[in-house]
UniProtKB/TrEMBL annotation:
PANTHER family: PROTEIN LITTLE ZIPPER 4. InterPro entries: ZPR (IPR039312). This is Uncharacterized protein. It comes from the Eukaryota. The lineage of its organism: Eukaryota, Viridiplantae, Streptophyta, Embryophyta, Tracheophyta. Residues 41-82 are annotated as: Disordered. Residues 45-61 have a biased composition (Polar residues). Residues 68-82 have a biased composition (Low complexity).
Amino acid sequence: MEKINSKLFVQNCYIMQENARLRKKAEQLNQENQQLLNELKNRLTKQQRSGNMQEGANNSMMADHYLSSSSNNPNGQNSTNN
């Protein structure tokens, strides 16, 4: 009985060591995952800001085009309305 108890004790020690190793690995992977998630969020935020800037530039270009086309006509009207 004592021999079986000793074997179980050794197995238990091995399992506890493996459990500690796996917990440490899981913690490292979790930290890496959090870093990658933060990087992804930062990239998405930058893309959204860039998209908003491009949208603003497009709107500005459209306004410039509208203003330049209406400034060609002294009355500020389209030529079809004359």
